Amino acid sequence: MGLGRFGGGVDVVQYAARAGARVVVTDKAAPEKLADSLEQLHDLADVEYHLGRHDSQDFATADVVIANPAVPPDNEFLQIARRNGRTIASQVGLFFQSCPAPIIGITGANGKSTTTTLTAHLLERAASPRPYDKVWLSGNIGDRPLLTILDRIGPRDVVVLEISSFQIEQLTQVRKAPHVSLLTNLTPNHLDRYGTFEAYCAAKEGIFQFQPLDTATPAASIFNAEDEIARRWFQKYRPQPGRRCLTFSADDVSDELRAVYALPGRANRSNLAAATAIAGCFGVSTQSIKACLPDFQALPDRLELVTEAKGVRWYNDSKATTPEGTMVALSAFEGPKILIAGGYDKHTPFDKLGRQIATSAKAAILIGQTAQQIAHAIRATAPVSGGAAVQFAGSLAEAVELADRLAAPGDVVLLSPACASYDMFENYQQRGRMFADLARRSSRQ
Fold it and tell me: Full-prediction pTM beyond 0.90?
């Protein structure tokens, strides 16, 4: 259920078909919208496609329904499956039930992609001898879907996963969790699905609830000491017999590591502290970490420097889909900043972001559904601070053109939308690529 336009369900179809199942793919999108995903499945002969709508009969008669993470648990068609006694499964649940290697799971509102990739980097580049063989990076990140790598993972390997709140909900249904679980932070997100911040936090907490405790492999629950919810959970889980609880903080990063770590801002030091805490669970030394840090590059769409011309630096932070993510980006730079923000409305509040823009940005160029909401939040602070200049653009191209006109030598132009991309783009990656192309083109003129 839910093939997805970008191949999110492709590995599920391949896995089920190769296991000998008769597979029915159902998706509300029309075939032309799913062309990329369907092309990846052209070699599978015994697959039926029910596209453009869902049929209740499919859910009433299937032996197993494998639901895409984006499908909420209370979906009407999943309820039909439950009423008919059908098994409801998920990609991430199937992986956890079959994976022979220890799993590291990283979740949070912000910083989880960088922390996950950095953790895999530190483990992969660690000096020998080490207590594991191969390192696998997957989950809600990267280009290696979970089920396509499952048959290549050995018991002496280690798997590093970025895990979303949607996937954690699916894991709790099968009472599974990673051996090592880490929370980067928690701020309001996905309130269009969860309704309240408390419900969102409850979904995230599942990553700790079913952790294997008495195990020969490294196991730990790791919390951000600078996050209020994480501190509370640390106190909650620390007394449990057999559970190893750790904390991390940006202040944990030593001067010698800071000297070789190129990513800007306190939030990136927090990401490094988190990755270091995990690496330590697997015996990686500080010297080994120091040796491999210079090779680590910023991920695309995450404070990525895309061009520098005429004294102006242009940064792509399209992955910042929450107000807090954009606040982190703004705090990473000294000097004048021109912010491009706005996008799909996930019903998150912009009050704190508005205050930070008003007090720390030279200008804000706003696009998308939330442009007026962000402008209102900025202007609410303006009588006190003087405020950032606020302008509106009907497209990203127009926003880049405005930014180019406003920018002076020494300025930073920052795409950090604080919102999802679905109102104007297919995904945040497309938004980031378009910004990078426009910025480079503008800087050549």
Answer: no
